[in-house]
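Issue: copy button drops trailing tokens. Both records pasted manually instead:
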Amino acid sequence: TREIEGPAALWARSKIADFRAPGNRNNDGHEGNRKRIIELALAYGLVTAFTSLVAVDEKEVVRPIDTALTKANIGPSLPVGMTFTAVFDGQMAQSAGMRPISQDLLQNNSFRRIIGLPTTATPAKAMILGGLIAILLGVGLAIAARRRAGLAIYNS
């Protein structure tokens, strides 16, 4: 269905609004109005509470029965802008192909900088220490505030 523009679309929108209005004379109940709204929306290419913008291709794409399955090698998947030879030297690329890199080596920041991988981990130990200090400071302030409130009650 294509979207219809102009007065016809405006008419269809107003008709849909009429069907949704609470004091509607043509009120066949929720299901009757829902059916009419869907028919109008599909006929005029409109989006309503009961329709959406979902494209459906009615032609099913299937491999013909008499066509054999094929096998193909797929190249290595690298981030955009990176080449295989930039990450690994040419000799390694030809001799070993894509070998997995050990986790110990991947955790080494200098290695990650050399091959161009991001080194954006958080300083976890410093953040834990900062959080503990903030908690202790908050508890201390809460205790001090309770003591002051308690002294104010006894002094009055």
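Record 2 (pasted manually too):
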Amino acid sequence: MTSTSTVAAVDFGSGLSQAWQVVVTSAPRLLGFLLVLVIGWFVARLLAKAVNAVLERVGFDRVVERGGVKTALARSEYDASDVIAKLVRYAVLLITLQLAFGVWGSNPVSQLLGDIVAWLPRAAVAIVIVVVAAAIAKAAKDFITNAMGGLSYGKVVATAASVFVVGLGVIAALNQVGVATTVTTPVLITVLATIGGIAVIGVGGGLIKPMQQRWTRWLDRAEQEIPRMREQVEANTARRQAEQQRAAYYQQGFAHAAHGAHPAQAVPAGPPRQSQYPPEQPYGQGQFTQDWPAQPGYHQGTIPQQPTGGRQVPQQYAPQHFPTPDDHRPNRY
């Protein structure tokens, strides 16, 4: 009975010692795991904010929106710079998790995270390929639309060219990340081979006469359309130059207004104007005197004429003096 209790006591004590040893061994690793997670979380957040600020400062959103990405993000609450910042943040968090789980040694989670982190550069290159392809497609569509905007089939050709370029970019991006390569590569090869085969067989095979007739019609149509296309391009160029000149004129006017200066405008000097009246005379030279007859109630004397600039005043408009009641009162002084 005593030996059995002694063995149980010994086993219990060894279990406690082993558990304590595990705790003592794992505690530093757990602290390191938590410390790596906290530091990585702060670093990911700060780095995402820095990337977003830098991209907005350099105008990344405007450049990307020209490539058609604006349409894809129209209903999203994030713009292009926000998406890139989020991707950077999650990439840093994945690297942080890989480092944190690496504290525990080799484990399946660390291996999985390592594979994902190794795949991130390929994903970044694929995103760049898609953005560049979208920008090229947008530029090609605008160019074809401006060059063939006056034609009935101009928009169709521009849309087809844009879709073709975007499709090539998507296929290249999928091949870059290694997704569905067994599907995208044969599709691309089939499309290119079909186009080449149709061209070879149609031109060099049984479609010689029909193609000859079509080529004749196409060449005639091209001769008719080329002047229209040239006129369309010249009209677009002239309109663009006029808009640039108008904008430059407005900017120049705003600049002069801001500096308080106005460009002097030369006014052509015309011939001297001649007055239809004789030159004016100084005051006093045009005076004349007039004697009035002595009548009862009137003062006899001279009335000076006001200056009239050398013009004679008719007699009926000469100033006159009318009698008043005071004229009959004797002068008491």
